[in-house]
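Late entry, evening session. Most of the bench is empty. Finally got around to the prediction I had been postponing all week. Sequence below, unchanged from the version circulated by S.P.
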Amino acid sequence: MAIEQKIRDKHLKLDQEKLDRVRRLLGAQTERTAIEQALELVLFEEELNRLLQELKGKGTIKKIFR
């Protein structure tokens, strides 16, 4: 699924400690990259939750280990 990127300049006030922590956790080289990766993770989680809701009640989990 190709999504057209629309890049806009933004001026944001962010918690620097949180931003530094996210950058380290994601291994991002820049703050911008850290923010982009964090946004992608949120969007991925939303899509995953949506798909799981669609599958809810449509199958069973089989125990394969003792």
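Two things to note before I forget:
Residues 16-55 form one domain.
The mean pLDDT is 91.
Will write this up properly tomorrow.
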